[in-house]
């Protein structure tokens, strides 16, 4: 039972519902259906949850239909995961999901209560109630479909629907979770299911910047980036949005906004390329320190050797990123250089050393004091010379390029880690990104 | 997925299943289906949960089919209730249930993992998965029915089924909770649904005693008590079992055992009267300090006055227990004495004073330094003189009896609190309960 509505509250409520309907159907007003997602720091404690309620209330009073996706309160998921791992290091993922999904459940109920306390109708919906159908890969499940019907009915009754992120229900009817950070994916999936006008991801940064503001003082917030750019940024370490969430948004054409729950400023829109009228050549400069380089010296240069090298690494779930094979002098042996994440370096080297006889290389060198710096922008599709300008700029700074890789909208180089700041700042200036 | 079973484990497992089936169907062995319930202190932390798993494993290896009901870990429910009350003092009970039920959910998953870690197959089942159907009185719901089919199938596959206590699902499909202490009721309800041979309630005492061992050094643990006796004991303050749980056990003829999770001794069986071959005259001496006495002096002695006095108290949810009306000397006025719980005393006195003119009494006296002492035993049904012996014994001790009330299997007296220990000890001796 709702404990609150006084007779006056009820009639005010009817009136505001009438008003919203009038705006939507008669005035064709820009009332919208929005999904708002609040991460762990945004719902960190009871005070923050109350603050989120105030923000949601403002969106409701602007006449919008609102669905909210929430994470667990700060530290809760870590505590629950710690319990599981202490009891059973090689845990049954289905029971892990039962334990760990409870954190989001708690936040969803508390936010519903906080909204009711502000006079806003609200109701929590657990993953199994909606339902959010996932596959059976417990602890790292993927969303298969979300049935939005009950939620839409609830919103049409003027209720804010509150959905715990990160959780769903597997084909066997048991609770599933999407893996750490899965709440972004929950929000995007829900926005697609509800045909929402926008999915706002509230976080602790104000949006997507042209570069890391801690390194580049003149970095500025972007109004818009494309899905493709966002994906490239995520792949080089800008961990604002989960990659899977961006991919899903792109697939279902869900307009995303990344913004801060601690300020009242508009954030960055992540949208389809068509929505960006004029493309800058380069949208941003990103970097990733989570890189390590391995060089195999004098590998036999014959068919099948690459497969024999990278096969065992893939089997051990070592992700290989940039790969460069030098042209061999004599057609018999070649040097092969590639990068892995730093945490995988030791394991990768072990595997390669164990297989040394089979692979037939002469020597192995590794280096973890490297960084990957990337320039990203959909504009470079239609412009030549972007990479050339990058290489020249780095050369002017006296920075040696160790490995190069490119995609349609990105050029990445591996350089010595000590030059990170100098490289990022130089490129930010060269591509005209410095704030005026 | 179960992460463990090695090929050897699997064949051992098949063998032990075969053995259990052989025992049950061929040997007609005394293999049993048991429900084990572990309260908050029994699952207080991770170490305690692991200890519970060891205990459950022993029951499994004895060839029994096991369902386990668990409470939340110590302090968790209080913390969650605190969150709810801080955010919304007059909370929506449906959201309260979403938040508060998560505590038992976590324990159920962790115990399943702890059992798996010991090589025992185990699976948690949430209230909505079973389902445990309750009415719609969120936060204080009553169980309507429990569908035991899936759980029985699971147990037949050799799995321990683990059920979070206290929670169910309401007719609207939302999570419900049974109110504080409801896990006992969950366990008994489950035992009825599964047609279990016994429901073991593990707690922090070793069973039901003839009297409070802190007062009577020679008190001894009872092997058996009847449902009726248990109910009377609960009503006079022996808070070992929830009253609703005992009522439900009686209704469905579920054999209960109360025992300690901290020792390895048999506890006390709570059973139907037929199972107790020889009844002691008196099974135990109980007392309750949570009593206060109110006397209305010179109330008009005319029809309807009792209703006018007790009506407003009932409206204010003040529970009135013992009532004595003195014979009036002249047929015009009478003294009325009754008891309420101490926490209700102030409120009761306020109400009576406000209505003084209407009730027409001359004076009001109240006293909270009183205690209710009871002798309880189904044997007294067929024996006269039990009450008389009690009154004489207290008189010999120089203890004045202020109020008397009786039921078929209980005699209670209200005396000054300072005599509690003396009265309980004297009665324990008089009725032959002192341990040899």
What integer value in Å does the Rg of chain A equal?
25 Å
Give the overall pLDDT of chain A as a whole number: 89
CATH architecture of the largest domain in chain A: 3-Layer(aba) Sandwich
CATH superfamily of the largest domain in chain A: Acetylglutamate kinase-like
Helix content of chain A: 25-40%
* Integer tally of domains of chain A: 2
**What strand line-up does the widest sheet of chain A have?**
3-6-2-1-9-11-12-10
Low-confidence stretches of chain A: 1-13
Q: Specify the CATH class of the largest domain in chain A.
A: Alpha Beta
Strand portion of chain A: 15-25%
Task: Using the coordinates shown, work out and report the CATH topology of the largest domain in chain A.
Answer: Carbamate kinase
Question: Given the C-alpha coordinates, what overall shape of chain A results?
Answer: globular
In total, the number of strands of chain A is: 18
The main β sheet of chain A shows up as: 8 strands, mixed
Largest interface: A-B, 43 and 43 residues
Instruction: Provide the structure class of chain A.
Output: alpha/beta
